[in-house]
Amino acid sequence: MARKNRSIKKTGSGLKFWGRHAVEAALDNPQRLIKKISGTREALESLDIPAEISVVFSDVADLGRTIPRDAPHQGLVADVDPLPDVWLGDILDQQSGRPLLLLDQVTDPHNVGAILRSAAAFDAAAIITQDRHAPPESGVLAKSASGALEIVPWVRVVNLSRALDDIAEAGYWRIGLDGEAMDTLEDAMGSSKLALVMGAEGEGLRQNVAAHCDTLARLPMSPRMESLNVSNAAAIALYAEYTRKKGN
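The structure corresponding to this sequence follows.
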């Protein structure tokens, strides 16, 4: 059984999610505790809401006052609690062969939400972040994820380098994405199951995290563009892994 890399217990409650995709996905997730759903009559009538969840009919203006200004709520706002912790050891014990995606100090909730969406689209087993350098669950992140926050397990660990050691013990080939690397991602992939490691925009991978990767690789790009947004780069890397597996 894989060693369990300790995670940080999430605290707090009182999250608000907004938008149809985020609310519908929360309803479909048995792990998500939903305390209340507020919405317009038209929006609420299209949902299958369990009897135990409180429902409040609201007009558009009232909904807008409960969430950040100009947030696109589409007539729906849900009051929810954070998801339960997910343990790295549990993910590794599944032996699914699906890729893991590790994010090193990627803190923008829009980026993490978009990355979750790509992870769901290309069948990643989980995303893994260091708890101190990653955004918490939030309405902004859930909206950006377009439902994927409820689908893709999100593991938060104390130390990303130690997590990479555990991942290696479980038989993963660890590739750090680095725009200055000699090899392209395709050349570096090999045939093992993969853990893809992405750094923050601008700073890239921290030295200690890069040292715990088996190899570094870059995405092949036109010289007219120096770099990609981290969420775009993650989508391309996950797509490359998805098509590699389909081709085997």
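DSSP finds ten helices and ten strands in the chain.
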